[in-house]
Structure to design on (447 residues):
């Protein structure tokens, strides 16, 4: 059997890649023996630079390419023992299909390798022109970067493991939404306007507003999911300008969970840790974090249970645990008590109160606020004006809101700002203007 230059190059490059990953994994604090396991080594490499999904896709493409190679080999064996016109026609069709599939897979593999290589160059603080070597001689490049002390992992824009310390001091949230618009056919519709506030760390805040008042739009703007003409700051860091890193400092629990029912509780939280914790965090540290979060939310005893077997309250706590795994400074929940009875809802909100007491900011939407209002510090009230634009009708303490609206419960406050055609008093604009005047007076007194 004669070896071609291509064969020798392929084997040499593969061996150099294994050796290079051995040393690169050491720099990332990962298990070096994983570098010697085909396919898994590329998966771990992609995970090191936050491209875990691309790594999975790359492995899938490699497996498909191997499958095509096997099918081609089986066809060659079959073709050697058969002949005829029908055979030729079938062969032509099969070759066309296989060739097309292989070209498509090669293109996809190139794209995924490019994305992972770009992430590596960025993680090592190198210029993008290095991508040429990564794509042409990956084995040599990988070994070079792994062995050379000149190639060190760059700091992740100031992010450190301190972010994941429950004893951290916490950060204030500043929200200044000048305008949030959306296109409606041929016109621009204003969804939110002139919403300005600063929420101190350690506060648990109720977000109150009628249907269409812009609660979800407000939350999406704050989290950066749907950007507005706004400045959203956590501490002194702008969420929009540094979204790639800041998104992990924000936890969002939607009303409907997206968990897989046939996964265990432990696997669910572990997967969340895999996605949300820094790629430079060691496996042992991630495991310690998962165990701690399961204990914190009372899920350790059911860690081996399937998600579909959990009670409603346990599922809610699991949803919260998944987001809490990265220890975010800002925690947002959309109707976490939906479907829960009074006792279970109370226990859930007490857990959220305990999170806020660790210097986090917790913002909650709930349709039954009065049964747990004693656990909140502040309330944000959004209301629709005459143009159906969401406006800030009040932000301040819970006790202050009763005096401001002249009401004795959150339900009465909500009725006062709802439109008359919604069964309310239709006083939204009155309170929007009243709150604006109050803020103006306070600013004047402060200056």
């Amino acid at each position: 059997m004669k070896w071609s230059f291509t064969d020798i190059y392929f084997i040499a490059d593969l061996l150099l890649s294994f050796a290079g990953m051995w040393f690169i994994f050491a720099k990332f604090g990962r298990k070096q023996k994983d570098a010697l396991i085909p396919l898994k080594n590329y998966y771990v490499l992609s995970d090191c630079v936050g491209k875990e999904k691309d790594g999975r896709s790359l492995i899938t493409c490699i497996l498909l390419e191997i499958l095509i190679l096997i099918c081609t080999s089986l066809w060659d064996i079959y073709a050697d023992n058969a002949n005829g016109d029908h055979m030729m026609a079938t062969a032509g069709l099969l070759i066309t299909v296989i060739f097309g599939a292989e070209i498509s897979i090669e293109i996809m593999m190139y794209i995924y390798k490019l994305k992972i290589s770009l992430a590596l160059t960025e993680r090592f603080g190198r210029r993008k022109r290095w991508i040429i070597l990564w794509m042409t001689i990956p084995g040599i490049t990988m070994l070079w970067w792994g062995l050379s002390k000149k190639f060190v992992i760059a700091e992740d824009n100031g992010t450190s493991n301190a972010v994941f310390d429950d004893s951290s001091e916490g950060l204030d949230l500043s929200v200044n939404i000048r305008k949030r618009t959306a296109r409606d056919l041929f016109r621009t519709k204003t969804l939110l306007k002139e919403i300005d506030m600063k929420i101190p760390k350690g506060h648990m805040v109720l977000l109150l507003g009628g249907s269409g008042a812009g609660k979800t739009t407000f939350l999406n703007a704050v989290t950066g999911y749907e950007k507005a003409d706004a400045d959203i700051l956590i501490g002194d860091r702008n969420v929009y300008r540094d979204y790639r890193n800041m998104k992990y400092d924000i936890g969002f629990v939607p009303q409907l969970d997206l968990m897989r029912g046939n996964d265990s509780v432990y696997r669910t939280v572990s997967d969340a840790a895999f996605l949300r914790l820094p790629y430079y965090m060691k496996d042992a540290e991630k495991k310690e974090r998962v165990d701690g979060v399961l204990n914190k939310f009372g899920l350790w005893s059911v860690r081996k249970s399937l998600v579909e077997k959990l009670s409603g309250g346990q599922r809610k706590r699991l949803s919260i645990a998944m987001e809490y795994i990265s220890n975010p400074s800002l925690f947002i929940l959309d109707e976490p008590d939906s479907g829960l009875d009074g006792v279970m809802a109370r226990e859930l909100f007490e857990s959220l109160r305990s999170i806020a007491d660790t210097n986090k900011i917790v913002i909650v939407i709930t349709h039954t606020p009065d049964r747990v209002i004693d656990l909140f510090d502040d309330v944000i009230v959004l209301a629709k004006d005459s143009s159906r634009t969401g406006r800030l009708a009040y932000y301040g303490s819970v006790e202050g809101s009763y005096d401001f609206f002249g009401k004795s419960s959150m339900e009465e406050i909500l009725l006062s700002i709802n439109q008359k055609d919604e069964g309310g008093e239709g006083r939204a604009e009155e309170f929007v203007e009243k709150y604006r005047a109050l803020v103006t007076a306070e600013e004047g007194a402060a200056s």
Observations:
- Residues 5-147 form one domain.
- The CA atoms of residues 65 and 102 lie 7 Å apart.
- The two ends are 88 Å apart (CA to CA).
